[in-house]
Amino acid sequence: MVLMVQKEVAERICAKAGDMSVLAVSVQLYAEPEIIMSVPRSFFWPQPKVDSAIIKLRVKQFNSDSEQFFKIVKAGFANKRKMLIKNLESVVGKQHKEKLKIVFHELGINEKVRAQELSVEQWRQLVAKLSFPT
Q1: 3.40.50.2300, 3.40.190.10, 3.40.50.150, 3.90.180.10: which CATH number matches 2-59?
Q2: By the 8 A CB rule, do 20 and 117 touch?
Q3: If you average pLDDT over residues 84-89, what whole number do you get?
Q4: CB–CB of 13/58 below 8 Å?
Q5: Share of the chain above pLDDT 70, in %
Q6: The CATH number of the domain covering residues in 66-129
Q7: Strand partners, 35
Q8: What mean pLDDT do residues 73-86 have?
Q9: Rounded CA gap, 68 and 110, in Å?
Q10: What is the chain written as a DSSP string?
Q11: What is the pLDDT of residue 132?
């Protein structure tokens, strides 16, 4: 797919680990985004207040429970200033905090990491490792 979006949105979609957002994780789960070129606001009439960018999305296969995946990702990003492990307690329950610590250790994820610091692959691994009580 080739799309033209606001430049800031394109940059958020293409973010790397450290600057991730729910939007970036969502798009990068299903596609490989790439900014092809910037389009200055002066190319439009009437001229908008923002620049645009053309992005290319190479769609990729994803075989997983996307509902569970996004439940965990949204919980992870719920409070941006909090550590990820604290945000995930709302999903798994405080009684499973030790399990979260074990999973983080198994995946080599620092317990003090924040949601925006994980890559999409780390999110996939984390979701795959977590099983929640019903």
Answers
A1: 3.40.50.150
A2: yes
A3: 94
A4: no
A5: 95
A6: 1.10.8.100
A7: 55
A8: 93
A9: 22
A10: -EEEEEHHHHHHHT--TTS--HHHHHHHHHEEEEEEEEE-GGGSSS--SS-EEEEEEEE----S-HHHHHHHHHHHTSSTTS-HHHHHHHHH-GGGHHHHHHHHHHHT--TT--GGGS-HHHHHHHHHH-----
A11: 52
Nearest CA to 101 out of 117, 114, 93, 109 is that of: 109
Q: What pTM does this model have? A: 0.87
What is the crossing angle of helices 120-129 and 97-107, to 10°? 130
- CA separation (Å) from 129 to 9, 42, 72? 31, 49, 12
CB-CB contact of 80 with 115 (8 Å): yes
- Per-residue CA distances from 77 to 2, 8, 18, 59, 130 (Å): 28, 19, 13, 24, 17
Q: Which residues touch 3 (CB under 8 Å, ≥6 apart)?
A: 54, 55, 57
Q: In the predicted model, what is the mean pLDDT of residues 19-36?
A: 96
